[in-house]
Design a protein that fits this description.
This protein has helices at 2-8, 29-36, 99-105, and strands at 10-16, 19-25, 27-28, 42-46, 64-65, 72-77, 81-86, 89-94, 96-98, 112-116, 125-127, 133-135, 141-146. By secondary structure, the chain is mainly β. It folds into two domains: 2-77, Ribosomal Protein L25, Chain P, CATH 2.40.240; 81-146, Ubiquitin-like (UB roll) (Roll), CATH 3.10.20.
Length: 155
């Protein structure tokens, strides 16, 4: 029976706070916090694909977590504000904010659209200038661009 358990456990390479680690899967939240050297006043988050809304926090307990090769995790301080970058300027924002608040914070002109930079092949995500709740992460990058671009027209 012990051999069967070992056969079902394999190791995968994951990233925690931009550092590569090898972890058995399944594992536990406690083990991931320890593996990544996550500070006590931080929460570990599991990155989800851009199409999904919010990255879930990893519970700091013994519940079983199944990992996938190449998965990414990051930690953030437990405080309510984080530093983000809007048009190359570092600003402080609440973690839970709105699109309208980001437009004001970034001093985005009225005829511009604010975008969240994404990694990989996905399109950068336009941020609506309204009261839709948005969760931002530390050092996340945003940029603004003219709302309507007409090819061939110079400004």
């Amino acid at each position: 029976m012990a051999d069967q358990v070992n056969e079902n456990r394999k190791e995968v390479t994951i990233t925690i706070d931009a550092m590569h680690h090898v972890s058995p899967t399944p594992t536990t939240g406690k083990a991931l916090y320890a593996l990544g050297g996550v500070q006590p006043e931080h929460t570990l988050y599991r990155e989800k694909p851009e199409s999904e809304r919010e990255d879930p926090p990893v519970p700091l307990d013994d519940s079983e977590i199944h990992l996938h090769e190449g998965e990414k995790f990051y930690s953030e301080p437990n405080g309510k504000k984080v530093e983000i970058i809007i048009d190359r300027k570092r600003v402080e924002s609440p973690k839970e904010t709105t699109g309208a608040a980001l437009y004001v914070l970034g001093e985005v002109p009225d005829n511009y659209i604010l975008y969240r930079e994404t990694s990989g092949p996905e399109e950068d995500q336009p941020i609506p200038n309204n009261t839709t709740t948005i969760r931002v992460r530390k050092d996340e990058k945003f940029y603004s661009s003219l709302g309507q671009v007409t090819p061939g027209v110079s400004l």
